[in-house]
Amino acid sequence: MPFVSSKMTFAAAALLAGTVFFGARLSGAEMVSRTTLSEAPPWYNAVYVEKTGTVMRGGSHLSELSTDNGKTWQRSPMTPDYLEGLPYGFRRETPMAACDPDSGRFVGVLNALDTEGLDPSIVEPEEGQELYYLRFRVSLDGGKTWAYDEPMTGGDGYTKGRPFDDMIIGRNSFYLGDKGSIPFFTKGGKLLIPAQMTVLSDDPNGKWYRPNNILSWTDAIFLIGTWNAEKEKYQWERSQRIRIDLARSTRGMIEPTLYEAPDGRLLAVMRGSNGGGGDPNCEIPSYRWYSISEDGGYHWSDPQPWTYDTGEKFFSPSSMSVLFRHSSGRGFWIGNISESNCRGNDPRHPLIFGEVDPETLQLKKDSLLTIDKIGEADKDRLPLACCHSGVYEDRQTGELVITYVRGYNGYKTREYVTVRIDVNK
What are 95-122's pLDDT values in tens digits? Predict the structure, then answer.
């Protein structure tokens, strides 16, 4: 199935792919449609570019444009093209983007890697653990052009090579996690970027901290932005690191995602892990972790296992998840929950949707809705992975539009599934 173009509407693509409609209402949320495509659709991780209206951008490097609320799409890249002229091997990943509900500015942040000659086909190069850094962009004209593209640093006294405290690019790095790293505008007017950083080793001539020779070890962080007077550029600060010890997570705190409660508290939910050299039998409990900030994201509580609002703990694999703030103020979570203790990244199914309790900031157990799970057709293409979920709220219906990867045989093949969930029931 090719990308939907200006000649193919979402409805037409759904008809060709075989949309299934669900009439049952579960725990106040109703799944109203499900569409499967063989390639990533342009609305995967789509975002509105203005405070109001129906203009959206999505697709690789936000190069796909819809002016009719996602019904039709056409290729229309933003300019300037910051990929043009880069040396071979340099990377600029697709920006995570959002529109400031106050100023109307469209902003984007992206992982960058300046390593000439690095094979671009390597999906997660090890060099990234010491060389990744973040770049930031702002559009002043509703997502038509970028006004600038700059490295994120802490301002005076900091540089691209030493962007914040405890960061020396080349020895350690900082970068976005996955689709949950949505630029987040707080009610107090700050912009928070959920990210993670590798940790400097104790050896001043060494590089990043790598206990038990693991693939990666990170602390969760947030970059906190404040507009300048003209609301054209941000002044950046870095939050306190959210840290955990090896006895509770063998890879640290990974891929934070954010929600702001009605009382202003910020909830961060993070991925941990078990397994590896320090836990070869995966005996450490595979929890999802959370931390709370009461001062706008500067300081965070020690991470604890995220639970149901009943107080019960649940198991979750080392996979990305995403928190999303609906226009109603309610918070929703999309991620994997398992019946038994997981083994590192697996199993990445079923995929679960649920609501955050606004008082306890835990996951409401009676709100859980299974989006996807193993079916009869999957038995010959395991392991199944249902993750990497992008989400946006349809401004005309209030429905949440969730697109995720359905990967088979260790991601050797994949499909892209889109579900619409009505949370207003």
Answer: 999 999 999 999 999 999 999 999 999 9
Q: Which long-range contacts (CB under 8 A, 24 or more apart) does 208-215 make?
A: 208/129, 208/130, 208/171, 208/172, 208/173, 209/172, 210/129, 211/246, 211/250, 211/278, 212/246, 212/250, 212/276, 212/277, 212/278, 213/277, 214/250, 214/251, 214/276, 214/277, 214/278, 215/126, 215/251
C-alpha span between 345 and 333 (Å, rounded): 18
Do the beta carbons of residue 196 and residue 256 sit within 8 Å? yes
Q: Distance (Å, rounded) from C-alpha 143 to C-alpha 89?
A: 27
* Cβ neighbours of residue 290 closer than 8 Å, sequence gap 6 or more: 267, 268, 269, 270, 303, 304, 305, 306, 361, 362
> Has residue 2 got a pLDDT over 70?
no
**Residue 75, token pair as written in the block:** 């290729």
Would you say 370 and 351 are in contact if contact means Cβ atoms under 8 Å apart? yes
Q: Which two tokens stand for residue 324?
A: 């999303």
- Segment among 12-26, 46-60, 278-292, 349-363 with least mean pLDDT: 12-26
Token reading at 168: 């020396």
Q: Cβ distance 132 to 103 under 8 Å? A: no
Q: Count CA within 13 A, CB hemisphere, residue 302.
A: 3
Strands (E) across 282-343 are located at 288-293, 304-305, 322-325, 331-336
